[in-house]
């Protein structure tokens, strides 16, 4: 989990206003997570952090590609990644009663000095993947999937 430290923002001493952070996340980043669907990647991340007096506003922009396994033939499949997400960080007490109901708002305890955004990068990349990940078809309607695997699947296909 050593790479996660790269995605930690030091909040103590951070001045009010806009701050821009840039990273490139790759297959090594996703390998840190046991159940990642992404095998390899090159995703450029730009995080614009706007520090206000009482809260933080984070704007994530992800762009690049990710390699996943095809849902049909299990061969590698390279997909474009594009994500634009906002996250608001409020500061609250330690007792958990300040927990928000919104998905795009988190609450950090007063005095928290660091914010690790690695988990959010992981989630935003995965959320930008399509639900069905299969090789595209060519102009003739033929899939680019592994022909041997497709033949094997057709052999065991139950026909009504």
What is the topology, as strand order, of the major beta sheet?
A: 2-3-4-5-6
Helix fraction bin: 10-25%
Overall pLDDT metric: 88
Any idea what the radius of gyration is? 20 Å
Shape call: elongated
Number of domains: 1
Classify the secondary structure makeup into a structural class. Answer: alpha+beta
| Count of discrete alpha- or pi-helical segments spanning 4 or more residues | 3
The low-confidence runs, each spanning 5 or more residues with pLDDT under 50, are: none
Strand tally is 7
- Percentage of β-strand residues: 35-45%
- The succession of helices and strands, N to C, reads EEHEEEEEHH
Terminal-residue CA separation: 49 Å
Oligomer description: single chain
Q: Give a quick account of the main beta sheet: strands, pairing sense, barrel closure.
A: 5 strands, mixed
Search tags:
single chain, 160 residues, alpha+beta, 5-stranded mixed β-sheet, two-stranded antiparallel sheet, 7 strands
Q: Can you characterise this structure?
A:
There is one protein chain. The chain is an alpha+beta fold and about 160 residues long. The chain has one domain. Helix content is about 15%, strand content about 40%. The protein has helices spanning about 25-30, 120-125, 145-155, and strands spanning about 10, 15-25, 40-50, 55-70, 75-90, 105-110, 115. A five-stranded mixed β-sheet has the order 2-3-4-5-6. β4 (about 55-70) and β5 form a beta hairpin. The longest helix has 10 residues, at about 120-125. It is elongated and about 65 Å long. The model has no long low-confidence stretch (mean pLDDT about 90).
